[in-house]
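Human
Can I borrow your eye for a moment on a structure tokenisation matter? Give me a protein, with the fold worked out from its sequence. Write it directly below this note and I will take it from there.

Assistant
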Amino acid sequence: MKPGNAEYISRLRTELDELNSLSYESLADFDIAGIERKITRTQRALDIASKGLYLSDHAMLRYLQRVMSIDVDTLRENMLSLLSDKFVGDGKYNMTEDIVVIIKDGVIVTMLDTNEDA
């Protein structure tokens, strides 16, 4: 957990506890759906703050493209030219001795080491 997150997490937990402790009588004058949405948002924020950030594959690809100046379109074309003639249809295909290509619905979805499960 990053420094500074502890205070934020503590505040979120307190807010969540307060929202969850409201009685039905006290809710009579409130928008219950709105409070439920706030509980959901607060719980989600707490979950994210507790786990920390995650880097998606899409964000990593854009970093490689925009920060490291890797031409992903050329990379895609090179990969497709290597693969499209060899593999037709869905399934698992050995690209090399060490690499398995997984194709689903005509899309190359991943490449794995031969000793990994898809």
